[in-house]
Design goal:
The protein is of the alpha/beta class. It has a single domain, classed as Alpha-Beta Barrel (TIM Barrel). The strands form 4 sheets. Strands 3, 6, 7, 8, 9 and 12 form a 6-stranded parallel β-sheet that branches. Strands 1-2 form a two-stranded antiparallel sheet. The chain has a two-stranded parallel ribbon with strand order 4-5. Strand 6, helix 4 and strand 7 form a beta-alpha-beta unit.
């Protein structure tokens, strides 16, 4: 939805994550990199910049694999981070639980041996994205499709009950959005639901507390904030315009912002020290892999 993919009227860029120098608590093992997707499908119109074509999505996943990165669920990523591992992992998240995930995204993930996390809206299963005023209307995953994704190894997280902004809501409403949605999805899939994704990326102290009290292990936000930590993880927006050069730039911004020490860190450090210039023996940025 537009408000999760936009800030101050513009699409979210990785720079937004680095630019807000508000204090936050890093998860154990450092801040993991998490990519934020929404819909993957052919499209003619996309006013909110939430849709990636299957062809573009395939190229983006291939770009990650060629750089020695493996797409995983946020649950797996956080488990690795707690042990100081996971430097070659990247979380792949899919907000809103669009039905097109099953037809278009899941086969691509399977082809590359990747996992991911889908965040369906527990109270809108089988419905439409009618919160997007300009459309186009997109069907949301049904209960059967959620189970199919889970059976394929995809982590299922919660995006709340109704896709409403949480800050400012009454305590009982917050509890329902966090706890009841978790209960619905847990019963539906037969698996524990440990992750929550804040609708529109909107958070405040009360909403983060509600997510913690509902028993979630982590929460996905968008931007860095005073609440940044395991229950308010920043993510990097990825859209149709993100080819190899933009992906490299977004990755570099995230890694530099969080003092990255994984594959390619030495080269990133050299590039930064030289004002963005490669050494003569370095391959062109964004064309060859970092390692």
């Amino acid at each position: 939805m537009v408000n999760r993919a936009k800030k101050d009227g513009r699409p979210v860029d990785a720079g937004d994550l680095a630019a807000e120098a508000l204090p936050g608590t890093l998860p154990p093992g450092g801040m993991p990199a998490i990519a934020m997707f929404h819909s993957v499908s052919p499209h003619d119109e996309d006013p909110y910049l939430v849709t990636v074509t299957p062809e573009r999505f395939d190229r983006q996943m291939r770009w990650l694999r060629r750089r020695g990165l493996r797409g995983v669920s946020v649950g797996e990523l956080m488990a690795a981070s707690r042990h100081g591992a996971g430097r070659e992992l990247i979380g792949l998240t899919f907000d809103d639980g669009y039905a097109d995930f099953i037809e278009y995204a899941l086969p691509v993930l399977a082809r590359y041996g990747f996992g991911g996390t889908v965040f369906p809206i527990a109270g809108r299963l089988g419905g439409l994205n009618d919160w997007d005023a300009l459309g186009p209307r997109k069907p949301l995953m049904s209960a059967d499709q959620v189970r199919k994704a889970a059976d394929a190894g995809i982590e299922i997280g919660s995006h709340g009950l109704r896709h409403i902004s949480l800050p400012g809501l009454a305590e009982a409403v917050l509890a329902a959005e966090a706890a009841e949605s978790r209960a619905i999805l847990t019963e539906m899939t037969g698996r524990d639901v440990t992750g929550f994704c804040y609708p529109y990326g909107h958070i405040d102290a009360s909403s983060v507390t509600a997510v913690q009290q509902a028993g979630y292990s982590y929460g996905c936000a968008i931007w860095r904030s005073a609440s940044t930590g395991p229950h308010a993880l920043p993510r990097v927006y990825v859209g149709e315009a993100d080819g190899s050069l933009r992906l490299w730039a977004k990755g570099a911004r995230h890694w530099l912002a969080w003092d990255y020490r994984g594959p390619g860190a030495a080269r990133l450090s050299r590039i930064t020290a030289s004002g963005g210039r490669n050494r003569p023996d370095d391959p062109p940025i964004g064309i060859q892999q970092l390692t």
